[in-house]
From TrEMBL:
Example of a GO MF term: undecaprenyl-diphosphatase activity
GO BP terms: cell wall organization; peptidoglycan biosynthetic process; regulation of cell shape; response to antibiotic
E.C. number: 3.6.1.27
Lineage, uppermost ranks: Bacteria, Pseudomonadati, Pseudomonadota, Alphaproteobacteria, Hyphomicrobiales
Annotated compartments: Cell membrane
GO cellular component terms attached to this protein's record: plasma membrane
4Fe-4S in keyword set: no
Function field: Catalyzes the dephosphorylation of undecaprenyl diphosphate (UPP). Confers resistance to bacitracin.
Protein name (Swiss-Prot/TrEMBL): Undecaprenyl-diphosphatase
Length: 268
């Protein structure tokens, strides 16, 4: 395998880690950048499997909090309700993702025009939600009602379309249903753990027969870089959102989608 491919894998891992937890669609960015680089992976597995790095980034940053929740489960009804709320929110994506896996990978992942469109439309919608005068009723993820968690999980399913953004759809849905910006972003972090772990495991199972040693090597490179850059984002995102909201990300989405259309018009 050419050295350039390893550099491409590292660059795409950087893109994944920097964008996974932002409401800008990491998958859309990785697929779009990969398209212009001419990067190809077996069964489009690279784009999914490097998300393991982002998962470990959350675990490393939130380890102490996750540990405290785990040891509180036997005695704390609040901890048990929170864990159940996250799993309940994960359920819709698990069902739809498994049933539509083939269509998502073979059709939606192969359309850069669709990605550019969803980036722009999603940016406009995110800007609209960010500017709305919403009065938050829920400010602590530990106290999110089960019904609210499930509805947020339904919003997450919109991200099956690349370019929509898993974090963007969950955060926007949470805001519309009465959460504040900081807790909406934090719940998106927690929901990412089972969602991305499930996507990783299912995609690895489905493509176990077509991934070779070279594929595994570039996946590992992308995973390591995604982990390092993901830690940086997770540590700083909540404070940034609290101070600036989501408008910068909305603008970024619109710019990237527009540049993507220009690039497609010039280079195809």
């Amino acid at each position: 395998m050419e050295l350039a491919t390893y550099f491409e894998a590292a660059f795409l891992g950087l893109v994944e880690g920097l964008t996974e937890f932002l409401p800008v669609s990491s998958t859309g960015h990785v697929l779009l950048v990969g398209h212009f680089l001419g990067f190809e992976s077996a069964g489009k597995s690279f784009e999914v499997l490097i998300q393991l790095g982002a998962i470990l980034a959350i675990l490393s940053v939130y380890f102490a909090r996750l540990w405290n929740i785990a040891i509180a489960l036997p005695s704390s009804a609040q901890a048990r309700r929170f864990v159940f709320a996250v799993l309940l929110a994960f359920l819709p994506a698990a069902v739809i993702g498994a049933s539509a896996h083939g269509f998502i990978k073979s059709v939606l992942f192969e359309s850069p025009q669709l990605i550019c469109t969803t980036l722009i439309v999603g940016g406009i919608l995110l800007a609209w939600v960010d500017k709305m005068e919403l009065k938050p009723r829920y400010t602590d993820v530990m106290d999110y009602p089960l019904g609210l968690a499930f509805k947020i999980g339904l919003f997450q399913c919109l991200a099956m379309v690349p370019g929509v953004s898993r974090s963007g759809s969950t955060i926007a849905g949470a805001l519309l249903m009465g959460t504040d910006k900081r807790s909406a972003a934090e719940f998106s972090f927690f929901l990412a753990m089972p969602t991305m772990t499930g996507a990783f495991a299912y995609d690895l199972y489905k493509n176990r027969d077509i991934i070779n040693v070279d594929d595994a090597t570039i996946i590992v490179i992308g995973f390591v870089v995604a982990f390092i850059s993901g830690v940086f984002v997770v540590r700083r995102l909540l404070d940034f959102v609290s101070q600036h909201g989501f408008m910068p990300f909305a603008i970024w989405r619109i710019i990237v989608g527009t540049l993507g259309f220009i690039g497609l018009a010039i280079w195809g």
